[in-house]
Specification:
about 290 residues, alpha/beta, TIM Barrel, eight-stranded parallel sheet, two-stranded antiparallel sheet
Length: about 290
């Protein structure tokens, strides 16, 4: 079954991962801006990173017939540096009209601090002024419910924010209804230890249904699996879910959310051979 991974950090993955994802019928991905494994010291470092996301990574993905999209922000882990964050936010409009940019993200909270909340709201202001989609990062483990509640309150307190144009990511059993009941889309992250297993994600689907919900791997520098979404497909099949229900979660829903993006150009899936996507033209050297 073809699928979309709407949250994966391919800058941290090898080319072999792209190949395995293509063999597993990955049609498209989106890559949110995030932490690079260390705190960056200058706005120029983020400028180069945004160029990597919007110029280089789409070419690397295209070698395997995978469509690459991106999101732009300074992430919550680095938002404690308010002056740097404001420099980075001021650069983002330069990139928003580039092909494949879906909006502002992944913004949110890490330790639920005042500085993180300030920078989150300044990202919201930019998104509102430019009418961009928003992708939300919710905190890990013991901070998750409190942080998700804080994020939802900040979103609801800004009347310019349209819930149907926001995806609250990394939801779990105790936070999924906070997103859905307030009109937002939500993402389940299939990531060991700090987020969901495929079995837990399937439990959540059986609890809340398939509307406005999607699944992702959030594959990054840490221990993570770029084939986590296919594992969810197999778990849903094992439990007897209809193919149409599975496709809705892993393909139709992320595509429906993305289609609201300012930059969206209708995307036909690449031709395939034996179920594996193959690009018509691939540039060597990426």
């Amino acid at each position: 079954m073809k699928y979309i991974d709407p949250h994966i950090h391919m800058i941290s993955r090898t080319t072999d991962d792209y190949q395995r994802m293509a063999y597993s019928q990955c049609a498209a991905i989106s890559e949110p801006a995030f932490w690079a494994g260390f705190d960056r010291g200058t706005a120029q470092g983020f400028h180069d990173y945004f160029r990597h996301l919007t110029e280089f990574e789409p070419k690397r993905a295209a070698q395997f017939g995978i469509k690459h999209y991106s999101w732009l922000c300074i992430n919550a882990k680095e938002a404690e540096n308010v002056s740097l964050s404001r420099e980075v936010i001021s650069m983002i409009p330069e990139f928003l009209e580039r092909p494949g940019v879906l909006g502002i993200g992944e913004i949110g909270l890490n330790k639920n601090t005042a500085n993180e909340a300030t920078i989150f709201q300044e990202h919201l202001d930019l998104a509102a002024k430019t009418n961009e989609l928003i992708l939300i990062h919710t905190p890990h483990l013991e901070d998750k419910y409190k942080g998700t509640r804080m994020i939802v309150d900040m979103l609801k307190n800004d009347p310019r924010v349209k819930p149907h144009r926001v995806c609250v990511d990394h939801v779990e059993e105790h936070t999924v209804k906070l997103a859905l009941d307030n009109g937002f889309w939500c993402g389940m992250t299939l990531y060991p230890v700090t987020k969901c297993t495929p079995a837990r994600a399937c439990d959540i689907i059986e609890m809340v249904g398939t509307d406005r919900i999607m699944a992702n791997s959030a594959g990054d520098w840490g221990k993570s699996d770029p084939l986590a979404v296919p594992e969810l497909i197999q778990e849903m099949k094992r439990r007897g879910h209809k193919e149409s229900e599975i496709k809705k979660v892993v393909y139709d829903n992320p595509l429906s959310f993305w289609r609201q993006a300012n930059n969206w150009k209708e995307w036909p899936p690449e031709p395939s051979t034996n179920g594996v996507a193959t690009p018509a033209t691939a540039k060597a050297g990426y």
